[in-house]
Amino acid sequence: MNDAELVQQVINGNENAFRFLVAKHQRLVLHIVGRIVRRQEDCEDICQEVFMKVFRKIRKFRGDSQLSTWIATIAYNTSLSYIRSRNRKQELFMDEDIQSVAGKSIDRRGQKTLEKEEVKQLLLEMIETLPVHYRTVLTLFHLEEFSYKEVGEITGMPEGTIKSYLSRARKMLKERLEQVSKSEKTNIFTEYAEG
Amino acid sequence: MQKDEKHILTDGWMDEVLKTPPAYTLSNDFAEKVAGKASRRFAWQQYFREFLIYLGSFIGIIAITVAMAFTWLEADWQAWREFLLNNGPLVAGINILGLFVLFADRVLLRYFFFRFSEKTAS
């Protein structure tokens, strides 16, 4: 069943078609909502709100873009509204301190050699501390594999801004990872090369 | 040389991690719950739309009847006006009752039956 047929079935009130649509896109919506909101306890409610908006607005879907892009746009806007409503406006514009995450992780481990999984976990934690637009474009581009054009459609950002955010986010993460690798005398890079 | 190698390895790590999904989860029956909620909303909207169509039809029929009565049957407008003003609460009460019966029949009862059948099915 292609997107147009699925949408038509949902408009006709076919519950199974909508269940299928939700099951098909829930991973995408969860990743966007999770990365923006960063609160597991709120994720399910917001994802539900996103899909209810999809249901209400589905007649407006004209098929100009892919259904996944359209749903991602709703997820992105709903998540931003949510964090704005929680008075976290400053989060949109301020860079958070990645150092604190790296430091916390090092203290927690209490050993000098990081294992592969630990570094991976550390990087994931660092992504969570990036400014919201950075982690959103990283998620959409790398994890969901949307093109620059599609990321632009979803976020409303120009292509140049997206490229710049992606490059700056990677640079920030890389710098922090290299700092951690130096300070912890990690053998992880050798292990990676051997693996 | 060693620094370049480290950069390449860091990029490899980065790509691997960026493709790793964040650790957020949804309940196993998420799709089921959302689809159920949407179908209840759809049912309610459909029943309410039908109620509005019925209401519009009744009002239309009454309006046409009144127009015909005054145009062709030469009904006494003043007498009707006086009757309505003198029996305002009664007329309003009958209309509200009729409206409620129509609403209950077209929307409430059907919606309750829909919910009941949903619960029975599950």
UniProtKB/TrEMBL annotation, chain A:
The keyword Repeat does not apply. Pfam families: Sigma70_r2, Sigma70_r4_2. Residues 121-173 form the RNA polymerase sigma factor 70 region 4 type domain. Gene3D superfamilies: 1.10.1740.10, Winged helix-like DNA-binding domain superfamily/Winged helix DNA-binding domain. Belongs to the sigma-70 factor family. ECF subfamily. Residues 21-88 form the RNA polymerase sigma-70 region domain. One of its GO terms (molecular function) is DNA binding. GO terms for biological process: DNA-templated transcription initiation. CDD domains: Sigma70_r4. The keyword Transcription applies. Keywords: Sigma factor, Transcription, Transcription regulation. PANTHER family: RNA POLYMERASE ECF-TYPE SIGMA FACTO, RNA POLYMERASE SIGMA FACTOR. This is RNA polymerase sigma factor.
Automatic annotation (TrEMBL), chain B:
The chain crosses the membrane at residues 51-70, 90-109. The keyword Transmembrane applies. It comes from the Bacteria. Keywords: Membrane, Transmembrane, Transmembrane helix. This is Uncharacterized protein. It comes from Mariniphaga sediminis.
